[in-house]
Amino acid sequence: MGLIKEPAEIDFTVISRVWTAEEEKEFSELIRKQKEARAKKQVRLTRKHLSEHA
Fold first, then answer.
1. Which end of the chain, N or C, is less surrounded by CB atoms within 10 Å?
2. Cα 31 from chain centroid (whole Å)
3. What span, in angstroms and rounded, lies between the C-alpha atoms of 36 and 40?
4. How far apart, in Å, do the first and last CA atoms of the chain sit?
5. Torsion over CA: 48, 51, 52, 54 (sign)
6. Residue 6, Cβ neighbours under 10 Å: how many?
7. 1-54 pLDDT, tens per residue?
């Protein structure tokens, strides 16, 4: 990730605030759903003919 160069006449500011319990719960649910979806998409290779190669 690179640095973002600020234009000469514009200042970027970041306002950080604490999440509410509801926001944390929603975020956790989103992450859980993404992990489940990713796990379903993974392809797992199995060795069916292991004894034939030995």
1. N
2. 7
3. 6
4. 47
5. positive
6. 9
7. 677 777 788 877 888 899 999 999 999 999 999 999 888 876 666 766 655 555
Chain-centre distance for alpha carbon 14: 22
Q: Is the pTM of this model over 0.70?
A: no
Structural contact between residues 21 and 29, judged by C-beta atoms closer than 8 angstroms: no
Q: What is the 3-state secondary structure (H, E, C) of 20-41?
A: CHHHHHHHHHHHHHHHHHHHHH
Calpha distance 35→29 (Å, rounded): 10
What's the token pair of residue 18? 């604490």
**Amino acid residing at 1:** M
